[in-house]
Specification:
The protein has 253 residues and is an all-alpha fold. It has two domains: 8-99, no CATH class; 123-247, Gun4-like (Arc Repressor Mutant, subunit A, Orthogonal Bundle). 50% of the residues lie in helices and 2% in strands. The protein contains twelve helices and two strands, in the order αααααααααααββα. The protein has helices at residues 22-31, 37-48, 52-66, 76-87, 91-99, 116-123, 127-142, 144-149, 162-174, 182-191, 196-203, 239-245, and strands at 206-207, 210-211. A two-stranded antiparallel ribbon has the order 1-2. The chain starts with 21 loop residues before the first helix and ends in an 8-residue tail after the last helix. The relative contact order is 0.09.
Length: 253
């Protein structure tokens, strides 16, 4: 069943209890099938505000994408809907989360690394903790020396499997309304002509001549600019960031 053919007559909440008329709700449902992420997210926010009635729609929306017949990866719209359902205390939402308790994707790792904790931190929008864990996972991927020193040297980036970088990046985008992730940073970097100073200003990692101070001056929620997270320490220079954004993992994009 597609997300724009939901049978509202089976909703757990009577239409009279809904603060919007059926035509308006139908418009919100139709917006879920839009090619515009902005329209989808607006519809998701408004449906979530309807309580159980809207959550029934969100459950159907995510279930359709998670069906075995659908070959596509969940989008940031599905990630946002999942986050609302994860926070809900409604029975239907709880039952849905029980069916997908570990998030919407099964991140793959060429090195057998478990990304389950990272996924759930991102689901809960605990972005500061997720950023720290991302750095830890990147060090693990780079090898024992990087893991021991707790930072990655630029020559070690090429050793990191593309599938792992793609998996981490996918989760960051999925649970941030497509605002965060290395691929978003790369898009900005290329758009700005690979000018690092302009990139730092765009990411708000640097203001004028002053680096943003960790952690209190960084923004750990969705009010941050596109690409603000995950962080990368630039005090050692740009070579590690350059290697990361130039990695073959992004050649498909």
């Amino acid at each position: 069943m597609s997300s724009n053919t939901i049978d509202f007559s089976k909703s757990a909440v009577n239409a009279a209890q809904v603060p919007l008329d059926k035509v308006t709700v139908d418009q919100l449902v139709a917006s879920l099938s839009s090619n515009s992420l902005k329209k989808q997210l607006t519809a998701i926010h408004e449906l979530a505000a309807l309580g159980a009635y809207g959550e029934d729609v969100l459950i159907a929306f995510v279930n359709e994408r998670m069906s075995v017949q659908n070959p596509h990866e969940p989008s940031a719209a599905h990630g946002s809907a999942y986050q609302y359902l994860y926070q809900s205390s409604a029975m239907a939402a709880k039952e849905f989360i029980e069916a997908f308790p570990d998030g919407l994707v099964c991140p793959q790792s060429d090195q057998g690394i478990d990304y389950g904790e990272l996924q759930m931190l991102l689901v809960r929008q605990e972005y500061e903790l997720a950023d720290k864990l991302t750095t830890q996972k990147l060090c693990e991927l780079a090898g024992e020396s990087a893991a021991a020193r707790k930072w990655v040297y630029f020559t070690e980036i090429s050793q990191i499997p593309a599938i792992d970088l793609q998996a981490i990046d996918l989760m960051w985008g999925l649970y941030s309304e497509n605002k965060f992730g290395w691929s978003k940073q790369r898009e900005l970097w290329l758009r700005l002509g690979k000018n690092w100073e302009r990139l730092w200003a765009q990411l708000i990692w640097k203001t004028d001549a002053a680096w943003t101070r960790y952690p209190h001056e960084f923004i750990w929620d969705l009010s941050a600019p596109v690409g603000h997270l995950p962080l990368s320490n630039q005090l050692r220079g740009v070579r590690t960031m350059n290697a990361l954004l130039s990695h073959p993992a992004w050649d498909h994009s």
